[in-house]
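Kindly inspect this one:
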Amino acid sequence: MSKVFYDLKSIIGKAVRYIDTRFDLGDGDTGSKMFEKEHIEGAIYWDLEKDLSDMESKNGRHPMISKDKMTKLIRQAGLTLDDSIIIYDQGGSPFALRAYFLLEWAGFSDIHVLREGFEEAKKVLPVSDLNQNYPLSNVSPIWKDELYVDIETVKKIVAGEVDAQLIDARSAIRYRGEVEPIDAVAGHIPTALNFDWEQLKQDGKFMKQKALIEKLTDLTDNSKPVIAYCGSGVTAAPLYASLKEAGYENVQLYVGSYSDWIRENEVETSLM
């Protein structure tokens, strides 16, 4: 069973590399400004749109980045596959988990997301406003392409050619097609179940493993692959990680998500 989330008390005094991923979907400069003001000492900053997405791609609003871009990103950060890495954001947000997914895809294994956000972390960890420069690494990622699916695979799932369960991480009213504030078409990918990712949080933090197991164990059949998606692939990352922490053994992420699917495919609207 995967252990994705770490509590502050479990990392105090340990030698780890920190990655700050604070971001605001409504103001793309907010995260970097917060980082420049203060961050956990030694942390580097990865921006959701500049670093963790390929915003030039048309495959959704926050498309999957290329292997070349990911390799460059981790080498510039001076990371190696043996590093122990802690990723944080504001807390209860999807941004650290997007970075977690991409690092897992690149072959990193000792990576965890801080359950608490920065404001709590800075009460017990040293902070700084200085940018830490690390020597470039020459790491060669060990890609785990089985962690994500593309639109062609999703088409096969919808057609019944691949036995897997899609899970929509958006709100129920968006899933049902009652409201769609962002995308041009309302509804969901056919055959998908719905589980609002906001249900994974308690008191502004992601639930502990025991609570996630209780919440997610009976969501769907654990014997077949489950694929998390959302609107643009960002808020699906918490569902992806939480399913893993809850004991699902074959979890994947459709990074293009609903915004990619609706470019050329039919949707469903339904009452749950």
In short: The first helix runs from residue 30 to 37. The domain at 148-261 is CATH 3.40.250.10 (Oxidized Rhodanese; domain 1). The chain has two domains: 5-144, 148-261.
